[in-house]
């Protein structure tokens, strides 16, 4: 069927995790990728020269530990499926860096974009952040610097936002259904990143029933101009497919054609599957559309059986509202407002408190975070965290490119914290040293 060659050699890393589900009837279950595989085989996608299927690698615990503070430890939040999903994303990155493919799509599960910097359990079907694990693998092993993550899942990627909140080298842009109408209830225009990374987090909360037109407007008017300015070395698409009109968990009107067109315009180096729970009606078509778009092939024939563009058309009010949200988001990147950060300072540290709910595991967590206001690097991070399961945890991160003072301060805090009888669990992520130290009081 496809006699024409591909414009981009595409690696598709496929891992359905057939033996893992939160529960047998849970929407995040193994059938999510079964029908996609059937569809791809039926269309003969893997017979097209230049599109190759690959098996994932398995991520190591060290790959998770350089990203997350895990309490009480990394092992207790992981199944082999989580390590393979993260390893699938890593494999996609390796295919590019080793020259085996021009682009890669990691079709893996379970997903990851609700997993935050600190992990006490599962949130929004996610235990570890597979995109962040991939990005930090790229930085550790291939010296990659500036990275952009564009999240097109219907839910706000609050986990990825949290992991990169203080990182000026990682641009995070999320398009999602307005948090007033959907889990996790965040991702508003005012969330713009931490004091040292202001404007490097951009949220575009779209109203329910946004259709192809609205999504593509956001890409053209906000995402592309920002990417052009930010100049990332790698663009990653967190490709959640739950904006589809048939998705049972959400209220959007996006189509397979829309997803493919979005991918073509965004032109990501790597796509990583996130959510998407319309197992028959959406996933097989959206995934096929994305694969064809990434390979640079014609995707015009990809259509869902019940696709009716007339019934999905946006009304005038929705359109005007989207235009307003988009111009605000664009403004926030190019002219980030004064966030009033100096009001939340203590002894040279920026302070932030948060409460986090883990809907999958029914855990609540309270955090208090201190970020050193350093003139020479992005600053030492200290995070005190207590959850309804585990009290008195401490995470310390010496960031990439940390100055000597922040490196010494991080090590000193960790040594001192071990003398503090009230602290139960500690983890130090030392990025310049390429090491992780852990301490647990029995
Ligand atoms: Zn989602
Ligand atoms: Zn410093």
Report on the structure:
With 442 residues, the chain is of the alpha/beta class. The chain has 2 domains: 325 residues, Histone deacetylase domain (Arginase, Chain A, 3-Layer(aba) Sandwich); 95 residues, no CATH class. The chain is built from 10 helices and 17 strands. The protein has an 8-stranded parallel beta sheet, sandwiched between helices. A 7-stranded mixed beta sheet has the order 11-12-13-14-15-16-17, covered by helices on one side. Strands 3-5 form a two-stranded parallel ribbon. Helix 5 links the parallel strand 6 and strand 7. Helix 1 crosses helix 8 and helix 6 packs parallel to helix 9. It starts with 9 loop residues before the first strand and ends with a strand. The mean pLDDT is 94. The structure holds zinc ion (2 copies). One zinc ion binds next to helix 10.
Q: Please describe the biggest sheet, giving its number of strands, its sense, and whether it closes into a barrel.
A: 8 strands, parallel
Number of domains: 2
Helix content: 25-40%
- How many strands appear in the DSSP assignment? 17
Helix-strand category: alpha/beta
H/E element order: EHEHEHEEHEHEEHEHEHHEEEEEHEE
For the record, the CATH architecture of the largest domain stands as 3-Layer(aba) Sandwich
Outline the low-pLDDT stretches: none
- Strand arrangement, largest sheet? 2-1-4-10-9-6-7-8
C-alpha geometry: globular
CATH topology of the largest domain: Arginase, Chain A
CATH class descriptor name of the largest domain = Alpha Beta
Query: What is the C-alpha radius of gyration, as a whole number of Å?
Result: 21 Å
User: How large a portion of the residues is in β-strands, by DSSP E?
Assistant: 15-25%
Give the N-to-C terminal Cα separation.
Answer: 63 Å
Can you tell me the CATH superfamily of the largest domain?
Histone deacetylase domain
Mean pLDDT: 94
Which small molecules are bound?
zinc ion
Q: Count of helices?
A: 10
